[in-house]
Amino acid sequence: MLRKGLVGPRQFLRGGRAFIAALIAGDPHGMARNKDYLAGLDVETTRRAAERFASESLIPLLRPDMVERLRRHRAAGDHVVLLTGAPDFLADTLGQHVNVDEVCATQCRTGNGRYLVAPPLRHPYREQKLLIAQQLAAQQETTLAETTAYGDSRHDIALLTAVGHPVAVAPDRKLRQRASVDGWEIVTSAA
Length: 191
What we know:
Blueprint: H1 9-25, H2 30-33, H3 43-58, H4 64-75, E1 81-87, H5 88-97, E2 102-106, E3 110-111, E4 114-115, H6 127-139, E5 148-151, H7 157-162, E6 165-169, H8 173-182, E7 185-187
């Protein structure tokens, strides 16, 4: 977005103010929720730029072994959901590419076709990701104990602890430690 000129000093200042406010409030996760850098941007222009970025820069980085796992889940009749804290304008393109049933990503507030300075309507992150996963499982008339979840960060531990088959993929240090202690599957390199 910066390279395309969509984000400039105004968006950086808004994001910086939100970051400082989160620090003052003692909110350690405020920066993850902070999407104020989007404020004022046209929703459709941002979505088109994100689709191009995802197609050109993110999709080529997808691990073939993980894409194959998703394909096997679909072939087995599993309801596959991309549950991510990434903004929906990025996650939607990735979800379409890997053919998931549903994308549940950060949904930013908009008005008159532009992003607003306001907390996201939905932000699947840490414990919030677990709550959303429980709701999704209930909609599918199943439980998390009957599901598989993949995560790569310590922020996914709450969700991975709750599912029947947790998989740590290229995990950060804290997630790797937890996965090792709890005997979770760890996938480190592409097969």
